[in-house]
Amino acid sequence: MTLELSGASTVVTGAAGGIGAAFARVLLERGAHVVLGDLDADRLEGTAAFLRGEFGDRVRQHAGDSSTDDGVAALLAAAPGPVDLFVANAGVFRGFGLESTAQDWALSWEVNVMSHVAAARALVPGWTESAEAGGTGGAFVSVASAAGLLTQLGSPTYSATKHAALGFAEWLAATYGDRGVQVTAVCPMGVRTAMLEEGQTSDQPDARLGMRSVVSAGEPIDAREVAEVALEALAAGRFLALPHPEVDRMQQQKAADRDRWISGMQRFRTSLEA
Q1: 226-242 as b/e, with b when 16 or more CB fall inside 10 Å?
Q2: How would residue 162 be classed by pLDDT, with cut points 50, 70 and 90?
C-alpha cells in the first residue's frame, strides 16, 4: 500500500540543513506534518522557524541525539500521532585514512548506522501490527550514499558505515517489506550541502581527496533533488533511489568484475592525487 503524504505524520533527522531540510520542505509541500530532528539546536530552530512561517503548525522540531533509543523516543514523541514515515538522514563525514581514530569510528557508526537501527526498532513493530490489522503500516527512507554501493576514497569510516546503512536497509526490506513496511534507500553522490563544502576546504588531505572524487565522478546536485527522487521511488515501491543515474552503471561494472573495478578506482585515486 502506497503511503499518502497529505496529512501524514513524518519525521526527518539531520534536518537543520542540507538534505534533511530539503526533505522537510518537500514533505510539507505535499501536505505532510513534519518533525525536524537535529543535534544542533540553534541551527534547527532557525530552519524550523523559517518553515513554520510558510507551513504553520505542521512544522515541529526536537533537538537531540537520534542515534540512541531514548533520543529516538523523544523525537517520535514530538510527532502529532503515530509516525507514518521516518527519514533517517542524519550523517557525519568524519575520519580520514588509516589515521581515523577510535572516536571517529565510533561516532560514524553511531550516527550513520545505529540511528537507523534505533528508529527501526522503535517504529517497525507498530507498523507491522498496523498492517496486520488492515492499516497502512509505515515507510522508512534510509539516506545512505553512493559510497554504500561503491566506496568512498579518503574516508574508510564513511565508506564502511554507508555500506552498513545500505545493508541494514536491505535487511529491513527483505524482512518487513511484505509485512507493511515500505523501505527505500537513497544513494546520491555529490550534493550541494555544507558537508561537501567543508570536505572540499578541509585541512585533511584525505578529506579533500574524498570530495574531489565525488565531484569528479558526477555533477553535484541540489538537496531538493535527492528528496524528490527518494519520494518518487518510495511511491513507486522501489527499494533503490539513485539521484545520480550514472551510479547504476558504476555498480553494475563493479558487480561484473570487482577486480577490474578496484584497479580502475586505484587509477582514479592516483589521478586525483597528482
Answers
A1: bbbbbbebbeeeebbbb
A2: very high
CA 188, CA 195: separation in Å to the nearest integer? Answer: 13
Query: Which CB contacts under 8 angstroms, 24+ apart, belong to 202-209?
Result: 204/96, 205/96, 206/96, 206/97, 206/99, 206/154, 206/155, 207/93, 207/96, 207/154, 207/155, 208/154, 209/153, 209/154, 209/269, 209/272, 209/273
Looking at residue 186, its amino acid is V
**Domain boundaries along the sequence of the chain:** 9-245
Q: Kindly report, residue by residue over 72-115, the tens digit of the pLDDT.
A: 999 999 999 999 999 999 999 999 999 999 999 999 999 999 99
Question: What is the per-residue DSSP string for the chain?
Answer: -PPP-TT-EEEESSTTSHHHHHHHHHHHHTT-EEEEEES-HHHHHHHHHHHHHHHGGGEEEEES-TTSHHHHHHHHHTSSSS-SEEEE--------GGG--HHHHHHHHIIIIIHHHHHHHHHHHHHHHHHHTTS--EEEEEE--HHHHS--TT-HHHHHHHHHHHHHHHHHHHHHTTTTEEEEEE--S-BSSHHHHHHHT-S-HHHHHHHHHHHHHS--B-HHHHHHHHHHHHHHT-SEE-SSTHHHHHHHHHHH-HHHHHHHHHHHHHHHH-
Record: fold of 9-245: Rossmann fold (3.40.50)
pTM of the model: 0.95
Candidates 104, 111, 116, 162; CA nearest to 141 is 116
Q: Which amino acid is at 200?
A: Q
Residues 6+ apart with CB under 8 A from 4: 136
Rg of the chain over all Cα atoms, to the nearest angstrom: 18
